């Protein structure tokens, strides 16, 4: 799998091609199409927000995902709505998949210039049901390894019944953009002497102490891939 | 403002009424319509994911928001796409606004039962441009106070030019549900003796050291509402 992903990435350019949908109408300087940046933003988050249209109205659901090269996977019960819809619809389901990190709170002297520092990726495209059995297994491994790298190899793989109950959607990274804001507030020159504190409150993420299952068998040590978190 | 919000909340029931769109097809036991829980989830997050339909395709954008009672506000440039669309469309713009917290990684013995602990709120509704000047000012205060409570009163309010450049959308909390997962993995009885560590990796959020603006005037202390973070 990694070999295929590496071959794919070496044969592709370093940036995604902008489209009408991925060029912002405002703050164009915050947009990026850099492939490595997009992958890094995607790999750091746990949950994406998957948008689709049902009965003419938008639906946005949080869901886990995994990445293999330039393809994302999401999964769910074969009975869940977006997965049913993608299976029923040919040629696939139009989706918008968005991932966002909030890195800091930007406090300006003026209310107007308050903002946040963030990194986001927005992907437009068409999601398809994965029907190939091998790809489906690789996708499920990627989903587990996205939660904790190395975990897929240290868990029981899905059996036939579980595979049959799980639907997987694929979405190619093609129409993609990142958007990010960094740095301090952009106050107006005439506001500089106002008596308000200004600056950035950084947000930090971390891990709490592990909570082993109450019924964990004796003698099972915490694996290295968890110690490294 | 708080008086109005309090009046509103005391005159309303403690739960939102479920609808076809807010009753999940699966994991119904994870859904909640409790008003206080919904408000708490909304108030704890910084960014929502706002979904709407453009040219028949879904769009999902991360954006700041603020809450006043049972009404949410998002804002943006008068030139931004969803705000333009909501202004052009009568009666408003169909949206789905979703907020998600990831609280922990759930590592089961089987790949199939891997999950995350999360709390999310999904709101379906119609967003309207706020045209009343007083409501617009209150909405902008709520947006700033959502980032840091108490900050709106300690910053320069928007002037006429800034107000004219800012569009605000309102979305009533009516068709709303929360969904949450807590606790450890739900492994199959036959997997209990497998040699894989299982349990939960809690995710924690915190604040880093404040980064004052480089040009911050001397003698401006860190305000109490920031010390309390």
TrEMBL record, chains A, B:
Classification via SUPFAM superfamilies: FMN-binding split barrel (SSF50475)
Biased composition (Polar residues): 1-25
Protein's recorded name: Pyridoxamine 5'-phosphate oxidase family protein
Region (Disordered): 1-29
InterPro entries xref list: Pyridox_Oxase-rel (IPR024747), Split_barrel_FMN-bd (IPR012349)
Stretches of the chain forming a coiled coil according to its record: none
Organism domain of life: Bacteria
Organism from which the protein derives: Streptomyces tabacisoli
